[in-house]
Structure formats: structure tokens, C-alpha cells
Amino acid sequence: MTCPRIAVDAMGGDYAPDEIVAGAIRAQAELAAEIILVGDPEPIQRYLDEHESGIKLKIVPAADVVEMHEEPLIALRRKPNASINVAMTLVKKGEADAVVSAGHSGAAMAAALLRLGKLPGIDRPAIGAMFPTLLPSKSVLILDVGANVDCKPRYLEQFALMGSIYSQFVLGVEEPKVGLLNIGEEDCKGNDLALQAHSLLRDNPRISFLGNAEGRDVMSGQFDVVVCDGFVGNVLLKFAESLGGVLVQILREELPKGWRGRLGTALLRPNLRNIKQRIDHAEHGGGLLLGVDGICIISHGSAQAPSIFNAIRLAQEAVEHQVSQRIQACYQASSVVGEGD
Amino acid sequence: MTCPRIAVDAMGGDYAPDEIVAGAIRAQAELAAEIILVGDPEPIQRYLDEHESGIKLKIVPAADVVEMHEEPLIALRRKPNASINVAMTLVKKGEADAVVSAGHSGAAMAAALLRLGKLPGIDRPAIGAMFPTLLPSKSVLILDVGANVDCKPRYLEQFALMGSIYSQFVLGVEEPKVGLLNIGEEDCKGNDLALQAHSLLRDNPRISFLGNAEGRDVMSGQFDVVVCDGFVGNVLLKFAESLGGVLVQILREELPKGWRGRLGTALLRPNLRNIKQRIDHAEHGGGLLLGVDGICIISHGSAQAPSIFNAIRLAQEAVEHQVSQRIQACYQASSVVGEGD
Fold it and tell me: Which UniProt keywords apply (chains A, B) (predicted)?
């Protein structure tokens, strides 16, 4: 297999282009991937020159950028040369295999839908995000975390199937255990959406459905994939993302100021840093847009070089493990095809 | 004003009756409240005898108890002498001012609705829960956290009004800032429920509406009251409740084992305990059922004596500050009356 080609939106994000380019340089050096930077060549080249890394990166020019305050669909239409449009077009034309962007996430999703389209059998793409769990090396994939605020039961079934494929082939989980985010363990609990989704998930032989996952079960490590509508998922994701900051603030206030505190803190410093990292969801990197005909990683707007590097690695792995092809094959092989809206 | 009389469901909860009675003894000793224990007199009296506290507690006999696996409405009808039924009846007859229960929360809510009824102008009662925030002495009231899985926009408006009254008169917040839990800061963000609730909240002159609260804003301290439907609120509450346990587990794994770790941990022990307490939502006590004609505190099933004591104090404060009367007055004075379902 040839080396995955990753188109990186160099203009999107709070720290663009410098931190994006820095992450791309590291990825080009360390990963078996070909990085294509999409954006204004002048500041990109300047950064490359200033940091004589010896790394050669391909640059595809894109004059415009979708600003955070813009309405995605209008901006994408008004700015055909926006970096996210150009990056998606590279994938569409077969000149790249994946897109990574830390820019306007609504615009990235809209551009993916417009340029790449949905996979056959998928009604709605979903954004998946990894949450940490109690178990040190285990994460759980939550989807959807924001692409679809109102969902139908069969969307959740599709999220479960896409999440299972990702978990199995990219994360190497043999038989991913799927949970339905809900307000009680019992089958009869939940709102209309949850009740109907429950029976779809239970009856689908391709899904290893463990049952309802309550809020307290999300980080328990029991589940590999948890599905929910994009409203609940987004609230939970952003709540979880704020925990690292809350913890640091509380540590700052509660750790003692005198010699006892200074000594104790000094002795434990590397461990406290590890603890923060495990809790701090922001360090876990980007969200994955599943269900479009191509690989798209949507990074956090505040992503800096390490996050961008992680996002590029995610993209590389998703391409290598043929996530889109496997989702497509799964729907072609079965009769589980969307019934239209 | 006479001393608030608090009917405590001695039979409800994982540690009933012993821990419930223990919490009640402390409350009777320390608070200006009259505690009425409702339940099987024999084990209650045995506990009182064994722990010669010198405290006299009134006992009202109730032979039955609603078990956790029972369907609330059926159980309440089949067991008129269940402790939660008897406790609610005491309030209905004017023999008690409030109920505290750590038993089946669905049964407590159903019993409150059946025996006490809703306050005029309120379509749906809500359960409110306090979350910690970044600011040391500040909490935020989230409602609904589980009473109503499917909500209409005007329910959220009522939750905001009830939450504001509670925040102002019981928690002493001068002008409670209200947020609408949502997936973006902008007014145009959200699902149908959030979009419609947004304009109701914005246009209600009795509500100090600050705008949308994203998941990351919940613990920021900007808001005093955050409203949402009971599905999202319950997921968030249970997720938050699991954080204390996750943190302890991570600390156990990440704090070093050798002399450095032992010494560092020993130096910081009291502080680490404080940190856990601030994050551990379970320590913050019970939920408050707002919108029924009486005060009901719904404690966690796993509540032990300290939580029960806190719940009783919450009930006492709510009675003293006339929360129900103020909600009622607010609706009588205005034309904001439910339009029926």
C-alpha cells in the first residue's frame, strides 16, 4: 500500500498557521505519511524557512479561510478557494486520502458533505470523540458529539455500526462493546429516541450491544463505543473537556503554599502532570467524521502542534485501515440501508 | 416561625434504616428542625437504643417500603403504607413541612405528585441538583436532572423561574444568572427545544438570562442556574458523580509507590482529600424536587449519615425560605400560566 496522503488545513484554528505547520513537520518526519499543507503559501513557507527542519512539505495554495463567526454553507459557497474547500477537493479528486482541520468545525463538516458526500447506506455522518476511561490504556469512542442535534433511531444504529468498525479496525478492539447513552440501565428507560434505538441496537446481529450506558458508565471502561444524539454528546464532550482546567485550578488552590506544599508538590510533580493528562480530554486530540466518503479529522480550534500531530496520525491510521471502505462494504453486504427521510 | 418539621423516609436507600437514622439523630441535635422518622419502628428504635444519643425522635410507623426494582405507580398503589406514601401524607395533612428520602427516586417523585400535587402554573416538577464550580464557595443549580426526559420549551422556562427563586431565597444569590444548556454560545444554536426555550427565557422579565451555557461553562461559575431537559441533565449528573471515583482510581495508579511517592503523598494528604471532596459530586447531597406543593429532597440511594444530614438541612432551609410559597406567588402574580398540554 502506498503512503497515506494527508491534506492539512493550514489556515484553520486559533494557532494557524504556525502550530499547524509545526505539527505537520513532526508528522512528516515521524509518520509514514505524505503531508500536504493547504493554505496561504507565504506564511507557511516563512515558518518552514525560520525552522530549518530539513523537512520538505508539499504546499497547495488556498487564498481564503472560513472565519469562526461565518455561517458555514454561505461561507463555503462564497469562498471556493477557502482552505477547507481546497483540502476536501484534493480528496475528491484522489490527490489526497484524508483531511485534517482545526478550523470552523461546522464548515469542515459541511465541506465534507458537499465535496465528498455521504457513504451509501448512511443517513447522517457523525463526529466521534475518544474519552478516557478508568482503565489506563483504554478509551471509549462516543458518537455523535455534535454533527446531528436531532436524531432518528436508525441514525444511532448507524453510529453504532460505524463506531464498531472504527473501534475494531483502527483501535484493534476485537469485539467492540456498544452502549446506548441513557438515563437508566433498564431496557424500558429513556426518551422516545432511546427507547426505539434500544430495540434496533439489540436486534442488529452486527452490533455487540451491551445495553444502556448511564452517565456514570461512560468512563467505566465497560464500553468501547457509546452512541447518543449530537446534542447530548456535545454537552458531555465539552463538559469533559473542561475537567482538566477545573482540576488544575482546584490543585492550584488546594495544594498548600508553605514548605510542606512546595516539597510535596515537587516530589509528585511528574505524577500530577500525568494525572492531568489522563483527565484532560483536550489532550486526546481530534474528532473523527464518520460516514462521509473520505477520512476527515476535525481537531479542536485550540489545537497546537502536538494535537495536530495526533490528528494526522489518527487520519493516517484510518486511511491505512480502510475505515470508509469497510463501512461501505458493511452496508453493501447487508440490507440495512437507510429508508430515506 | 415555628421549627420546620421534616419527615424522613427511614426505609429508603441502600443503607436504610441505620445510616438514615444516624443522619436524623445528628440533624435533630444540630438543626432547628423537628425530625419525624417514617418507617418500621422496630429497627429504628433498636438503632436509637444501641446509640444512646439522648436524642428523642418522633417515629411514625410505616410497614412497607417501595423496593428499587418496583414500578413506582404500581408499588405506590399496592402499598399505601409504604414509608414514602406515609411521609408524603404527613405533609399533605399539614403534620410535616418537608420529606427527605433516599429510596426509589421515581417512587418519591410519583408519591409527591399523587399526594401533594403540582403547584398552580407548573406543568412539570423538576429535580434540581447542585454541581460544584471552579469558584471555591460557589455551586450551580442544574435542573432538570431526571424528572422529565422529554420537555417542552415552556417547561424549561418554568424550571428557570423555579431555579431562580430557589437560588435567590435559599442560596442567597442576589440576581441569579440563568443559562440554557446548549451546544454553542450563539442564539441560533441548538435543537428545536433549545431554540424555542431560548426566546422564552430571553423574553421573560423575571429571569436574568445570560444566554446559552455550553458543557464547558457548567462548572465555570458564570451561571447560578442552568436549565435542560431531564435526559441531558441526568446523563450529565451521573457523569459528574462518577468523577470522584475516577479521580481516586487515577490517583491510586499515578501516585508513585516508592519513598518519593509515600513522602509526597503524606505531605499532601489533607489537601488531596479536599480536592477529592470538591470534585466528588456525590458529597454535595440530594436533589430537590421543585414544583410540587411541598418540599421534597430526593437523596442518592447510596446516601449515608452525612448526606442525609445535608439533605435534612436543605429541606429545613427550603421550608424556612418558603420556596413553594414563593413559586406559587410568582405564578399567581403573573399571567405566565401553563397553557395545558
Answer: Acyltransferase, Cytoplasm, Lipid biosynthesis, Lipid metabolism, Phospholipid biosynthesis, Phospholipid metabolism, Transferase
Q: Which of B218, B232, B260 sits opposite A267 (nearest CB)?
A: B260
A210 sits in which H/E element: strand A208-213
A264, B242 Cβ separation under 8 angstroms: no
pLDDT tens digits for B292-303? 999 999 998 888
Nearest-CA distance A215 → chain B (Å):
4
List the domains of chain A with CATH numbers. 1-122+291-324+331-341 (3.40.718.10), 125-285 (3.40.718.10)
Instruction: Give the helix ranges, DSSP H, for chain A.
Output: 18-30, 41-50, 72-78, 83-92, 105-115, 153-169, 192-203, 230-241, 243-254, 259-279, 305-320, 323-333
Residue A230, C-beta contacts closer than 8 angstroms, at least 6 positions apart: A126, A127, A144, A145, A146, A147, A148, A149, A151, B183
Q: Using CA atoms, how far apart are residues B106 and B288, in angstroms rounded to an integer? A: 13
Cell 508513585 identifies what position?
A: B256
Instruction: Classify residue A33 by burial, with Cβ atoms within 10 Å: 0-12, 13-18, 19+.
Output: buried
Map residue A8 onto helix, strand or coil.
strand
DSSP alpha helices (H): ranges in chain B? Answer: 18-30, 41-50, 72-78, 83-92, 105-115, 153-169, 192-203, 230-241, 243-254, 259-279, 305-320, 323-333
SS3 content of chain B, % helix, strand, coil (to 5): 45, 15, 35
Nearest to B267 among A192, A242, A263 (CB): A263
Contact status, residue B181 vs residue B126, Cβ threshold 8 Å: no
Which of B68, B145, B231, B279 best probes binding to A when mutated, by most A CB atoms within 10 angstroms? B231
The separation between CA A29 and the C-alpha centre of its own chain, rounded to angstroms, equals 23
Name the band, by pLDDT with cuts 50, 70 and 90, for residue A337. very low
Instruction: Note which residues in 180-199 of chain A have CB less than 8 A from chain B.
Output: 181-183, 190-192, 194
Q: Enter the DSSP assignment of A3.
A: P
- Write out pLDDT tens, residues B263-273: 877 777 777 77
Determine the pLDDT at residue B47.
Answer: 93
Q: How many CB atoms lie within 10 A of CB B173?
A: 18
Mean pLDDT is lowest, of A252-261, A328-337, B307-316, for A328-337
CB A215 within 8 A of CB B234: yes
User: Which three three-digit cell numbers place residue A83?
Assistant: 482552505
User: A16, A102 in Cβ contact below 8 A?
Assistant: yes
CA B175 vs CA A259, B53, B141, B158, B220: distances in Å? 41, 42, 14, 17, 17
**Rounded Cα distance, A249 and A279, in Å:** 13
Inspect the interface and report whether the beta carbons of A268 and B275 lie closer than 8 Å.
no
Please state the φ and ψ torsions of residue B224, each to the nearest 5 degrees: -100, -30
pLDDT tens-digit profile of A86-105?
Answer: 999 999 999 999 999 999 88
- Residue B35 one-letter amino acid: I
Q: What are B198's strand-pairing partners?
A: none
State the complex-level ipTM: 0.87
pLDDT at A156: 98
Closest CA to B299 of B312, B309, B286: B286
Distances, alpha carbon B288 to alpha carbons A289, A312, B130, in Å: 39, 47, 9
The whole-angstrom distance between residue A63's C-alpha and the CA centroid of its chain comes to: 26
